[in-house]
UniProtKB/TrEMBL annotation:
Pfam family, one: MaoC_dehydratas
Sequence similarity: Belongs to the enoyl-CoA hydratase/isomerase family.
PANTHER family (UniProt xref): 3-HYDROXYACYL-THIOESTER DEHYDRATASE HTDX-RELATED, 3-HYDROXYACYL-THIOESTER DEHYDRATASE X
Domain MaoC-like: 179-260
Domain of life (superkingdom): Bacteria
Name the UniProt record assigns to this protein: MaoC-like domain-containing protein
């Protein structure tokens, strides 16, 4: 695999116009780019970490939440997916799942090497899906891995999955998700996709209102387990129906084996937003 070394984090302000122009071209191709983006000497800004923790519901700490390094990886992910040889335009892709594996706690004062690549292009019943894999390394040893699965709709050929009748579980907490959470998370994440910012811009993309970022819902769910998480664990989620803003959502957790399972549902209708698990390694 070819390696593209970056000496600074890509500018998101220049990548969004590039993504918009990319949406004008046709998607196609059956090959993901064989390039891995690498950036060494990645450090955490304490003020940015504090802002992220506040928006997502984590306590202030020198240990990074397991979802925080996704903030470090996001600009490289954007850069990778807006390259000319990427087979799909960035706008219109759906983030359907995310799995984060933390091999040990990560501290604020550490320096990391960050690697980002795309792999495993495969058919899906609604189109094609693939993984964007991001890794943090210390002394050439992976300490954190993030696998984000994306779906490009159209021309589906994968095997259809049967779905039974949904039954909403009894909630253990009710989330009151404010109308501005998309804008607040966008400030710390850099993910300024218009579907998350305002109802007017979201409606232009077919949504009845702005929707919460999937990675915010995952982070806010993980914050519910603070103080109980092992040092090494995997947190895996599948994103279901979007959380419209503002809204009330019902959060449910239960013990399962060596960890927990959790779900987030619409508090008024039997519509699931997210399902996930935390498993000790």
């Amino acid at each position: 695999m070819a390696v593209k070394e970056l000496h600074e984090s890509p500018s998101l302000s220049s990548l969004y116009p590039k993504a918009l122009l990319g949406s004008l071209r046709k998607s196609g191709g059956n090959t993901l780019p064989g390039t891995e983006f690498v950036r060494e000497g990645v450090v955490v800004d304490p003020a940015h970490l504090a802002a992220y923790n506040q928006v997502c519901g984590f306590r202030l700490d020198d240990v990074l939440p397991a979802t925080y390094p996704h903030m470090l990886a996001f600009p490289l992910q954007m850069a990778l997916m807006t390259e000319r040889d990427f087979p799909f335009p960035l706008l219109g892709m759906v983030h359907v799942a995310n799995r984060i594996t933390q091999h040990r706690p990560l501290r604020l004062d550490e320096s990391f090497t960050l690697r980002v690549r795309a792999e495993e292009l495969r058919p899906h019943e609604k189109g094609k899906q693939f993984d964007v894999v991001s890794e943090l390394l210390v002394n050439d040893s992976p300490v954190w891995t993030d696998v984000s699965t994306y779906l490009r709709r159209g021309g589906g050929s994968g095997e259809k999955t049967s779905r039974g009748q949904l039954a909403q579980p009894a909630p253990t907490a009710i989330w009151h998700v404010p109308a501005d959470i998309g804008r607040r998370y966008a400030e710390v994440s850099g993910d300024r996709n218009p579907i998350h910012l305002h109802a007017i811009t979201a409606k232009a993309f077919g949504f009845p209102a702005a929707i919460a970022h999937g990675m915010w819902t995952k982070a806010h769910a993980l914050a519910a387990f603070e103080g109980r998480l092992p040092e090494a664990f995997a947190v895996d989620v599948k994103f279901k129906q979007p959380v419209l803003l503002p809204s009330k959502a019902a959060f449910t957790t239960w013990s399962e084996g060596e960890g927990w399972a959790f779900e987030l549902w619409n508090a008024r209708k039997p519509k699931p937003h997210l399902e996930g698990s935390v498993v000790a390694l």
